[in-house]
Amino acid sequence: MVTLILTLVPCAIGIAINHYKPNYSAVVKRVGFSILMICSIIVLTLSAIAVKDAFWMIIKPDVLCAGALLPLIGFIMGYVISTICGLSPQCSRTISMETGCQNVNLCGAILKVVFPPNVIGPMFLFPLVYITFQCSEALLVILCFRCYQKFKSPVKDTKIYNNVDMYQEVVQ
């Protein structure tokens, strides 16, 4: 229940800020991203200190493979399905990022709610593996898109505008 509240309340606050004070949303986004990066670095550092060598005994190659493939599949399927549905490339890219990035909170919530603590134990580290691959894959996708934008040839303006003069004046 707490996980659901901690996920939904910030989303509701963000939606309210974007709806009622849209000029503040850019500042809130920058501050929130900065806080996210600082907290992520702290959590990853403390997690690495806490588990040390046990991490490699707990996390097997198949778990690492799943942690690497899940966000990648989310990015690809989000883009492909939105393109099939006829959405614009901008919307498809947004949906791709959303479907690839929204699953970490869900992953943690499912692990916490479904499994008792004595069963889940060290597998609760999976969200850390997942978020690590998710962030690195998201940065890779963004980097590839930026390179594509930089090196693609500019699109020529193919629209033809005809100026039609509806009222012709007769000059005498």
TrEMBL record:
> What are the transmembrane regions?
30-51, 63-81, 124-145
Q: Which GO terms describe its molecular function?
A: bile acid:sodium symporter activity
Q: Which keywords has UniProt assigned to this entry?
A: Membrane, Transmembrane, Transmembrane helix
* Signal peptide start and end residues: none
Q: Which Gene3D superfamilies match?
A: 1.20.1530.20
Q: Return the protein name.
A: Uncharacterized protein
